[in-house]
Design brief:
Distance between the termini: 59 Å
Helix content: 10-25%
Low-confidence stretches: 15-33, 118-122
Oligomer: single chain
Structural class: alpha+beta
Strand order of the largest sheet: 3-9-8-5-6
């Protein structure tokens, strides 16, 4: 039995084109979703080494885009535990933590090394500023 190799190449070529278009569609769809994403934004002011105002926790729903925009009256290193996001904030410029709330639970946001001061053991003090609470959909 003789197999016409041209038919095999043509079939393979058609399959490759189909796979390419399917993958291209997925990538384009993800880009459109990312470009059109809605972001839940919070502006947070650190003053006298604490959050200004009465805000003690931020509540969001799982799988949301979140942006935390930070302002401070002295340099500080921030750490969002659970997501392991670290950000240095200076007096001169606000800093933004942007992420997708994929993990549910309660996560502290801590300040490390306010003003770059260290204790007698050479370690930075850290304090919980507030909590991020991510609720399931």
């Amino acid at each position: 039995m003789m197999v016409d190799m041209r038919l095999i190449y043509r079939a393979m070529s058609n399959a490759t084109v189909i796979v390419f278009f399917v993958l291209s569609s997925v990538s384009a769809e993800e880009s459109i979703n990312d470009a059109g994403k809605s972001i839940q934004q919070f502006e947070l002011q650190i003053e006298d080494r604490q959050i200004k105002g009465k805000l003690k926790k931020i509540k969001v729903t799982e799988d949301q885009w979140v942006a935390l925009k930070w302002y401070t009256d002295e340099t500080v290193n921030l750490h969002l535990h659970g997501y392991d996001i670290k950000q240095t904030v200076t007096v001169d410029a606000p800093a933004v933590m942007e992420f997708r709330s994929r993990a549910t639970g309660r996560f502290p946001i801590t300040a490390h090394g306010f003003g770059e001061h260290q204790d007698e053991h050479g370690t930075h003090h850290h304090a919980v500023l507030l909590y991020l609470e991510v609720y399931p959909k």
